[in-house]
Write a structure and sequence with these properties.
Elements lengths: L1 H4 L17 H5 L1 H14 L3 H4 L3 H27 L4 E2 L1 H12 L6 H13 L14 H5 L17 H4 L2 H8 L3 H39 L19 H6 L6 H6 L15 H11 L3 E2 L6 H5 L15
Antiparallel strand pairs: 1-2
Helix pairs in contact: 3-11, 5-6, 5-7, 5-11, 6-10
Length: 303
Amino acid sequence: MAMATGESREETTPIHDYGEADGWLTRTSKVSKIIFFLIHLSSLLVLLVGAPAEALILCAATYAIRVFGITGVYHRYFAHKTYKTSRTFQFILAFIATAATQKGPLWWAATHRRHHRYSDLPGDVHSPKDGFWYSHIGWIFDGRWKGTALDLIPDFAKYPEIRWLNNQHWVPPLSLAVLCYAIGGLAGLVWGFSVSTTLLWHSTFSVNSLCHIWGSRRYGTTDTSRNNWLVAILTFGEGWHNNHHHYMSSARMGFKWWEYDITYYILRILGALGLVWDLREPSEGVMRRNLLEKTESPSSSNA
């Protein structure tokens, strides 16, 4: 079992032996900014390539797979450790998530842990109190957050293969772009990578921005987090953000039966297959604690 859980006899190396955590693409920040804007601009090539059915299907598939990569892997696994998996499957999940083009797993999880530590306070990475634009996208270009804070993510930084992936975080997105071109030519590349990535970015960024200014609050948290049904649809359940800030250790963010949480459903399927286990759930006591409203129905939960 030790070999299955990524503990004990598995080979790891000390964090201090790693050196640069983020790779050349992060250090050459001008290049990464250019790539960011070029992916947005290249989405306009849909006017040239049209909208063939196979390209649209590819777009939907790469969006869905990578949304889960961000929500179920980067967020609920690496940032919050809401379930367990084997070391092998950990790397497979991390590779898929890194294809979302949101840098490496150590950077993403460490940055998110910082967000929770200082949520809506000075030091928060993307608080709407610094402005909607900043919380949505401006923080990405803030040099304070470009490096991986290894001290915030020592539990996963001990794995050399995860550190390699964090350093070479350009490999999975480039591999996906090549695959999309191989499958569907230029139309496949534009829809399957450029359009899909742009939609993915702004959907997941909306959790940082919209879910702190628009929606309902079930729990009296110390921040401005809100539950937003629309963002929950776009992000496979991440829109139940007030639930999450109330109890961040849960693999399930939709606490009520009507709060759809596709990420959680996928995790349950992976659990049934034996690929993940020990999914953490909120207890009845947790769900009743710090309630702002004692009763709630599906109709009253709308943002």
